[in-house]
Design brief:
Length: about 600
Amino acid sequence: MRPAIRPVIAALATVLALAGPASSQGLLSPPSAKPAAAADQPPSPPPDALGRQTPSGTVMGFLAAAAKSDWPRAAKFLDTRLPPDQAEELARELKVLLDRGLSIDLNRLSRAVEGEQDERLGKNRELVGTVTTKSGRLDILLARIRFGDQAPIWLFAPETLKDVPAAFEEYEPSFVERFLPDTLTKGYGLGYMWWSWLVVAGSVVAALLLALLLTRVFGVALRGLLRLVAPRVMWARWVSMLKPARWLVFGILLLAASAYFLTTRQRYVGGRAAWLFIIAAITWLGVRFLGCFAKKWAEVREQQSNTERVALVRLGGRLLQTVAFIVGVLALLQSVGINLTPVLAGLGVGGIAVALASQKTLENLFGGIMVIGDSPIRIGQFCRVGTMTGTVEDIGLRSTRIRTLARTTISIPNADLAIQSIENFATRDKFLFNHTITLRHETTADQLRYVLAGARALLYQHPRVEQALARVRLLRFTATGLDVELFAYVTVTEFEDYLPIQEDLLLRLMDVVEAGGTALAVPSQTTYLTRDAAMDGEKATAAARTVQEWRERGELPFPDDSPARKKTLQGGLEYPPAGSVLKPGGNRT
């Protein structure tokens, strides 16, 4: 059973527990308008000990007594003036006629003390059903009768009982019963003929075997069809619905077979059991179908790179499965005769208790809906949540799972995730290249100009650097040296693509610093005595000469390069550099 369904079962148990006492103790009924007047009324007569106050109670009580072969008790349900032995024989004949010729839903019998009050039948008359005989149709009627000061009761009407002996004489055993031994046709077990139990057992076994055969043949045909028509479809997932379909077919076959059971109660119980199988199988089939459909839809969304919908599809599928399960449970309760009115009324009281008990669960559920709706992160994206960094693996009903760089899994409750700051690295459209280098204090102004100009040209020329926002500036003088800031955007979206570009820019920047005859400052407090071979005088002179030539030609790139020079420099740098394995003809092995 899915974890999301367990709270639903607990909630239903709570509602039933709350609704049961409320209905039995009268908590849901309105208070009496005149409680004092009740003392002036005469006491109501006690209820009938045999349960004959309603048509349903009379029929069910008669069948129960006849099933136990308690014919003296069964005769008390007949409105007859016959002697006891003849009344008992009349009860036996009526039982045979009801078993062999009457097919009704016992649940539909009226449970009201007044009955259905059909005007066509007259007052205090109730039609149970009709038995077909060779000479015609026999209506099974009930009559409401009062004896003295006792409460009115329902009995089998005299107009029905007078025709029972003649109809019983027309009864003939079936073709099969004629060849069966008396131990089966006349012997009784649990109140029913052994022959009737043999029919029930044979029908159940036949329905089960036929359901297995039909679903097995259909499963083989379905596998072959899916492999032929849609080879990429996960046929195993759809064929998994054959198991609930098998029980659905069994329930339908059992419902059809129960109409031929030999007794009224067996037909009633068989039909009720068949409907339980049908409702349970439909619920199971619906839950599995929704699960398969949601998984298939999520796979399609993933193939379309529409990951923001994947979590929503999964969440919606689980919610629909939960709703289908609840509807199935309510239908099962209704089919076994449980009145759902107090249950639904108890939801008002029980809903408060369930809401209080599952406050965190509901908070996480709505938090997950907010996360999916707002889409700050999606499945498969790399992000930072608080101090945790990793890849989103799943957004569920209760929590979101993130796979960290250490390859561990962290589950964050959706309620906490909805209120935290989330940094989504996957939505980055370009990478920031922002570094500060410190040159030595011995660097002259012209050397510094040379390094600045060379660094700018480096950024302008690189094909993966956005030229419009690229800048290289002398930032500040520090105790360590001269700070130079490089600021630019690299036009790639993947971190794996950014790292080699950053490395290439830094290495080329070192070449520029070295070509300017200066060096990077060393932030160290170490004191050492050695001959100073700090800077290359020839390179310093060459750098100063180059800057002087820029001045003389009016090409000094300060405070910035001209737009024409930027356009000339754009894309002029070779990347990947010469000799790289990524260059055409390079050794990639």
